[in-house]
Amino acid sequence: MTHWITLLAVEEVAKEGGLFDLDATLPLMAIQFLLLALILNAVFYKPLGKAIDDRNEFVRNNQLQAQERLSKAEKLAQQYEQELAAARRQAQTVIADAQAQAQKVAAEKIAEAQKEAQAQREQTSREIEQQKQQALASLEQEVDALSRQILEKLLGAELVGRR
């Protein structure tokens, strides 16, 4: 086709002697250029443009989906952080309650042990006092018995010596 155009151009130059004639070759060249442009557009540019547009649409969709997933992930992370903070507060409350309860139980046990110790001391003191009283009573009886024996021996010897 290019040879044919070249031949037409050479014939025209030879006939008229000029490069640009305004006869039928100029419209013919314009028609050929438009046909070439249409063929190139149909064969190469439209599929290439479609592939580029499809790729741009794919990238745009993936970017939008990624942004949506990122926002969802951020919302979930924030929600989980709030739940974690609430769980920590609840755990601290439970720990504080348990410590208070343990201290209360320990104080009650200590008070109970002190009462028991006091009661045992008092009972031991009473038992000691009772044993002391018994020992004193026993000693008094023994002293009385010994005193009588001594008196009997002394008086008995006098009574026996008087007899």
From TrEMBL:
Its main localization is: membrane
Q: Which keywords, in A-to-Z order, does the entry hold?
A: ATP synthesis, CF(0), Coiled coil, Hydrogen ion transport, Ion transport, Membrane, Thylakoid, Transmembrane, Transmembrane helix, Transport
Q: Please explain the role this protein plays, according to its UniProt record.
A: Component of the F(0) channel, it forms part of the peripheral stalk, linking F(1) to F(0). The b'-subunit is a diverged and duplicated form of b found in plants and photosynthetic bacteria.
- GO CC field: endomembrane system; plasma membrane-derived thylakoid membrane; proton-transporting ATP synthase complex
Can you name the source organism?
Aetokthonos hydrillicola Thurmond2011
Any coiled-coil regions, as ranges: 56-149
Q: What protein family is recorded?
A: Belongs to the ATPase B chain family.
Provide a Gene Ontology MF annotation, just one.
proton-transporting ATP synthase activity, rotational mechanism
* Keyword Ion transport assigned: yes
Q: Name one Pfam family in it.
A: ATP-synt_B
- HAMAP family given for it? ATP_synth_b_bprime, ATP_synth_bprime
Q: How does it assemble?
A: F-type ATPases have 2 components, F(1) - the catalytic core - and F(0) - the membrane proton channel. F(1) has five subunits: alpha(3), beta(3), gamma(1), delta(1), epsilon(1). F(0) has four main subunits: a(1), b(1), b'(1) and c(10-14). The alpha and beta chains form an alternating ring which encloses part of the gamma chain. F(1) is attached to F(0) by a central stalk formed by the gamma and epsilon chains, while a peripheral stalk is formed by the delta, b and b' chains.
* Compartment(s) of residence: Cellular thylakoid membrane; Endomembrane system
Q: Which residues cross the membrane?
A: 24-45
Species lineage: Bacteria, Bacillati, Cyanobacteriota, Cyanophyceae, Nostocales
Per its record, how is this protein called by name? ATP synthase subunit b'
Q: Does the keyword Ion transport apply?
A: yes
Question: Source organism's superkingdom?
Answer: Bacteria
**What topology in the membrane does the UniProt record assign?**
Single-pass membrane protein
